[in-house]
Amino acid sequence: MSEWIDISLPLSAETPVWPGDTPFSYRLTWTKAESGSVNVGQITLSTHTGTHIDAPYHFDDEGKRVLDLDVHLYIGPARVIQWEGEGSIRPKDLAAMDLTGVKRLLIRTGAWSDPCRFPKTIPHIEPELAPFLAEKGVRLLGLDLPSVDPLDSKELPAHHALHRRGIHILESAVLDQVEPGEYELVALPLPLKEADGSPVRAVLKRIG
Ligand SMILES: N[C@@H](CC(=O)c1ccccc1NC=O)C(=O)O
Ligand SMILES: [Zn+2]
Ligand SMILES: [Zn+2]
Hints:
The chain has helices at 32-35, 91-94, 129-136, 157-164, and strands at 4-6, 25-30, 40-44, 52-54, 75-82, 88-89, 104-108, 124-125, 140-143, 168-171, 181-189, 197-206. By secondary structure, it is mainly β. It has one domain (4-206): Glucose Oxidase, domain 1. The termini are close together.
């Protein structure tokens, strides 16, 4: 029996966040000494901290919020592939792989080499990858990167292109210990009614 592999970034004050965004913090509201019975904590974090999913509302004012998303997207069979390319991720990089019928696709780029620091540049998704993946049946795209667009992008063309094709986004998964292959994925967002994104505890179990 294979084990579940945790592909989530640990959340602490050291977790790198998007430049200028809210740092993660955890503190005790009450200590056991003060309350006489329990430690009770509070957390402050950006919705795009660590391993997380984007709701369409992140980049579209009319888009779905986290609680509106279908949980089935985030549980089920997933394919992990290794990307070998230069600069950006495009259909020709994946053309040799048979992705027909793959509903959840996780792309291991290995490009975020130091998870203690936010990367300076990342390979991005070319918008033309969206129709290519949608054609194969992909509904969830995950990456070991903090965005599907270049870090300085304001228009977010890949986010929009994926959204137009009904493909949801999982970012900053930790895939360096994960061999390409077939897995069961669980990466459920929190039931946040209004939010534009949510941290997830993402795990994979090898099935093939
Ligand atoms: N698109 C990125 C996040 C992002 O763009 C962002 C996250 C936090 C603070 C500012 C951001 N973008 C600003 O232009 C993501 O989906 O996680
Ligand atoms: Zn995000
Ligand atoms: Zn994003």
